[in-house]
Amino acid sequence: MTAFEKTFDSAALEYDKSRPTYRKEIYEDILQYEPINSDSNVLEIGVGTGKASRPILDTQCHFIGLEPGEQLAGLARNRYQAYENFSLFPQTLQDFVSSELFDLIYAATAFHWIPEDYGYNRVFNLLKPGGAFARFAYHAGSDQGRRALTDEIQELYRKYMHPESRPAEFSNADAQKLAERALAYGFVDVKHTLYHTAKDFTADEYMALLRTYPDHMKIETSDRKKLFEGIHFAINKHGGIMTVYYAMDLELARKPD
Fold this sequence. Notes:
Blueprint: H1 3-10, H2 12-18, H3 24-33, E1 41-45, H4 54-57, E2 62-66, H5 70-79, E3 86-89, E4 102-108, H6 116-126, E5 127-141, H7 147-160, H8 172-180, E6 188-202, H9 203-210, H10 214-217, H11 221-237, E7 241-254
Parallel strand pairs: 1-2, 1-4, 2-3, 4-5
Antiparallel strand pairs: 5-7, 6-7
């Protein structure tokens, strides 16, 4: 397990509570692209705590999930213990060995941790002819209704994380570019969609969210303490609530028949 994966696993409860729920339209679009039923084999890469598993499990498919984090996997097993079609392996995609092929393989805010060449090629080889690959993720954006709060927080990031520039919002063009990467690995019929949602956080809740971000936990301890304390103070100073605006992107691709 990488250091980043260990960060997620050590904050499993905070991860499960703090991270956003995926829009239901994502699953509707996946299942329209690749209908799944009780005869289908599905593989989820990077199950985490199972935040993206239930809508797929509810199709009654034969579901296999991969999750190397012990704490994350424990929460997922507890969440889906009543599902007879749920199987979870404490492995990465790189360690996974399978004698069967899959109708659908998907990854929710997980595929970017896998080297691109390996990831796409491995997924292609694990799919049945005509099978589908779905990757989706969320991208946090700044509070659009509290400009003073956003500016104050960005100043804290410039001081303690030293970004080269203010992060750009994830766009439809970004999703299209990501979808088209699959073409280089033999996939066809690529599609992409961008969705939006928002979630409110109190200052304490936002601190819990930040503790699930590996790049934040890599900051030198004293700087991280100052950054977190500064953000916590700023949120309370500006009303006690921060709204995170999320862009959620879905990319679909198919293995040729």
